[in-house]
Amino acid sequence: MVERYLYLDCQSAIDLAEAVIAFKDFRKPTTLSENFYILNEEKIISGVLTEKMIKMTEFRNIVAYDYTKINYEILYDVFQNRLKDFEEFLKEIKEKLRIF
């Protein structure tokens, strides 16, 4: 259950990044991770947050495509310590786009 919820959190962040990129008419990404690089290039999110979101995207890909490689210590760490990264992502988007 935890894996699924974290997957959904990651996917929601990716979907939001894609929506912002489309709305602002930024260049189109070729990978899921590139969404966050583009937001960083356009000064929407910080470099530190970009790296965190890229790691979340990598985690999402493991859960989605290579279930056997899930490291449960990492899963536990994400669940215990990294959920705030999603909140930070939303906060930076809100501040830069002046929405919500």
Comma- or semicolon-separated keywords:
76% helix, 100 residues, mainly alpha, single chain, 4 helices
Care to describe what's here?
Helices cover 76% and strands 0% of the residues. α1 crosses α3 and α1 packs parallel to α4. The protein has helices at residues 2-24, 34-41, 47-65, 72-97. The protein has a single domain, classed as bsu32300-like (Four Helix Bundle (Hemerythrin (Met), subunit A), Up-down Bundle), CATH 1.20.120. The model has no long low-confidence stretch (mean pLDDT 92). It has 4 helices and no strands. With 100 residues, it is mainly alpha-helical.
Low-confidence stretches: none
Major β-sheet annotation: none
Name the helix and strand elements from N-terminus to C-terminus, one letter apiece: HHHH
Strand content: under 5%
Give the number of helices: 4
CATH topology, by name, is: Four Helix Bundle (Hemerythrin (Met), subunit A)
Q: How many strand segments? A: 0
Task: Write a concise synopsis of the structure shown.
This protein is mainly α and 100 residues long. The chain contains four helices and no strands.
